Structures are given as structure tokens and as C-alpha cells.
Amino acid sequence: MNTRTVVVTGGGQGIGAATGTLLASRGYRVVVADKSESTAAAQAAVLDEKFPVEGGHVAVAVDVTDATMVDAAFANLTERFGSLEGLVNGAGVLFKAPAEETSVDLWKLQLDVHLTGALLCSRAAFPALARAEQPAIVNIASVGSTFGLPGRVAYATAKSGVLGLTRTLAVEWGKHGIRVNAVAPGYIGTEMVRAGLREGTLDEGALVRRTPLGRLGEPEEIAKVIAFLLSEEASFVHGEVLRADGGITIDGTFQ
Ligand SMILES: NC(=O)c1ccc[n+]([C@@H]2O[C@H](COP(=O)([O-])OP(=O)(O)OC[C@H]3O[C@@H](n4cnc5c(N)ncnc54)[C@H](O)[C@@H]3O)[C@@H](O)[C@H]2O)c1
Asked: How confident is the model at residue 254 (pLDDT cuts 50, 70, 90)?
């Protein structure tokens, strides 16, 4: 089989970077697509050094909320590689505010990045995915897809929407052979969570006590689930939301 190409949005850091690294180690060509041009370029350079592939890994500076930019980026990739075998919609942002103080701008931004961005990238990737062998999309949900998250109304609403997006794309695109699934991570030690710990809006002790496995997750642990969902191993898994959260969302302890 030819080198499989996978686009990872938000691939410059955190879960996206860990995912790109794991996929590159398994022989994929990774397109590191991120709003931050510098982190995308740095991450693609690391992948080229550690896991070289013919034609190289690719850095793309793209804001997933900008339809013109997204369409141009995917048109360019399609022209270059012909087909795409995978898309990971990993770009994310989180802003905290009580619901009654949530500004329309921050509400829209979070829905735009997580929902509109995932739709725009999936839509733009569709023709190249539909031509590929065993193509797959993985979206990133959250504990906010299950829980109400105080102070994060836009984020939790967006992440709940990711479930509908995942299921609907799965139903529409199954006939094209494109599998669509999501992973729902718990609290993972990336900058998104570390910033909350630093600012005191998240309490590590409370999170750890609340999680049956008794710790935060590592980005590499989510990368492994994403790699599974993209792979042939998951060939009949479709429209699924796989939780990887240390058990936090199934714990009914009441105290
Ligand atoms: N860290 C966690 O505990 C956790 C838990 C559940 C879900 N998630 C989700 O996982 C995904 C990755 O999160 P992370 O923790 O790695 O976050 P992160 O902040 O470490 O990385 C997010 C990446 O997305 C990029 N990005 C942001 N806006 C973008 C845009 N408009 N266009 C393109 N790229 C953009 C950023 O530049 C950054 O590289 C997000 O969807 C997040 O909501 C994270």
C-alpha cells in the first residue's frame, strides 16, 4: 500500500501533536495543520527528522474556521497527494466564563472552532477521502459531551454538538466507505488543562480524586485511541464515540 496521508488539525501541540507523532511512527505521512504556523512547521520538522517518509511530512498554516483558507489548503493537498486516507479534527480552544457573562464573540468562537471547523475540514476533505482506500475521520469530543461543565457553556455545547456531527457524517458518508468516529477524552495533561491548573480554574487533586483511574491522562493515550479508530483494526466501528477518560464519566459515586 502507498504511504497513507492523514491531516491532523490542531496538530502543532497537545493531543494533535501526540497523534501526529504516533501516526508518523506507524508510517503515515502527517499533514500538521494548525493556526499557529510556527508550531506546525516545528512539529513537521520533528516528524521529518524522526520518521522520514518519501515526499516528507507537511506543515499547513490554517484557521479551521475560515472556509476559504480550509478549502484552499485541502485543494492543495489533494492536488499534491491525490487522495487522503485520514482526517483528525483536533483543533480546539477553551475559554471560561459563567453562562450569564459569556460574550457572543467567545460563544461563537468556540462553536466555530469545534463544530464549524470540523465540518469545514470534513467537507473539504470529502472528495479526497472518498477516493481513498479505507478512509476515516476522527473528531474529538470531551467530558463536556456528557457532563454539564460549569463555566464552560460554549465549550460543553460545542462538544455535545460534536456527537451529532460525528453520527450524521457517519450516516451520510458510510456509503462512500468513509468511517467517522469520535474520541471523548477525559482530563489530559496538555496546555489546555495545564493553563486551567495554573490559573486555579481546575484543581488537579479534585480531578484525580474524581477519576476512577486516579490520574490525568497523557496526550499519547488519546493518540493511541485515535490511531485505532483510523486503522483497519476499527474497520466496522462507525459513528461511535469512544471514551478515554479514566472512567470519570461512568463514576456514580455520590458524596
Ligand atoms: N486536554 C484535554 O483534557 C482535552 C479533553 C477533551 C477534549 N480535548 C480536545 O482535544 C483537542 C486538542 O486539545 P489539546 O488539549 O491538545 O489542546 P491544545 O491547546 O494543547 O492544542 C490545540 C491546538 O489547536 C490549535 N488551534 C486552535 N484554534 C485553531 C484554529 N482556529 N485553527 C487551527 N488550529 C487551531 C492550537 O494552535 C493548538 O495547536 C481539542 O478539541 C480539545 O477540545 C482536550
From this structure: confident
